[in-house]
Write a structure and sequence with these properties.
Blueprint: E1 2-4, E2 7-10, E3 17-22, H1 32-42, E4 46-51, H2 54-62, H3 71-86, E5 94-100, H4 102-114, E6 118-122, E7 147-152, H5 160-164, E8 172-177, H6 194-210
Parallel strand pairs: 3-4, 3-5, 5-6, 6-7, 7-8
Antiparallel strand pairs: 1-2, 2-4
């Protein structure tokens, strides 16, 4: 792992595929979840870049909790990061963007505009906690960017039954992690472990990224 200015990098610098991941609303770019996925994917000939939105950068610097910035500011941050990273990309390289929960949702909102090669959402927040009627899916119906959403089957922000009722673009592929919650953690009674779900999720993302 290499820290450069406001980003973290994993994997070979000359890898043809660059996957850029943003964190969720409450945890930073070096959370155990983000680190596990970045390090796991870096073993698959993928270059990983992680960054933090402005509010999280301030929280890190000041040591105080801050709520996420409003949508336009989060989207602007994504555009800036994509533009910056494109400058160092190999000529035939591909850039895929995404992230955990909110990070992936905001990426999905700028993917078309930013003309990226693919999109990866790790635990997409299809609706706010406890408000299944307030869906965040309207833009997903017309999405043209090749997309992979990795989702726990019992994610409180979009269970497998919830998602079956949504109208989603044919460009979106879903990979379900058995009994996983919003961070893919299963219950002990399921017979699965969090690490198993993380490993399965990492493998699914690696296959998607390398075949975009």
């Amino acid at each position: 792992m290499v820290f450069s200015d406001h980003m973290l990098f994993d994997g070979a610098a000359k890898a043809k595929h660059l996957l850029v991941l943003a964190h969720g609303a409450g945890a930073p770019m070096d959370s155990p979840f983000m680190t596990a996925f970045a390090e796991g994917l870096a073993k698959n000939k993928i270059r990983l870049a992680r960054f933090e939105f402005p509010y999280m950068q301030r929280r890190r610097a000041e040591g105080t909790k801050r709520p996420p910035d409003r949508g336009p500011k989060l989207e602007a941050a994504w555009h800036e990061v994509v533009a910056e990273l494109r400058q160092g990309m190999p000529k035939q390289g591909k850039i895929i963007i995404g992230g955990k929960s909110m990070g992936g949702r905001i990426a999905s909102m700028i993917a078309e505009e930013a003309s990226v090669d693919g999109l990866v959402c790790l635990g997409y927040p299809f609706h706010p906690p406890g408000k299944p009627e307030k869906t965040r899916t309207e833009h997903l119906a017309a999405l043209k960017t090749p997309t992979l959403i990795v989702q726990g089957t019992r994610d409180a922000l979009g269970t497998i039954d919830d998602v079956k009722a949504y109208k989603l673009s044919k460009a979106i592929k879903l990979h379900w992690l058995e009994d996983g919650d919003h961070s893919f953690k299963p219950r002990k009674a399921s017979g699965r472990t969090e690490q198993q779900n993380w490993d399965e999720g990492i493998a699914a993302v690696a296959r998607f990224v390398l075949n975009v």
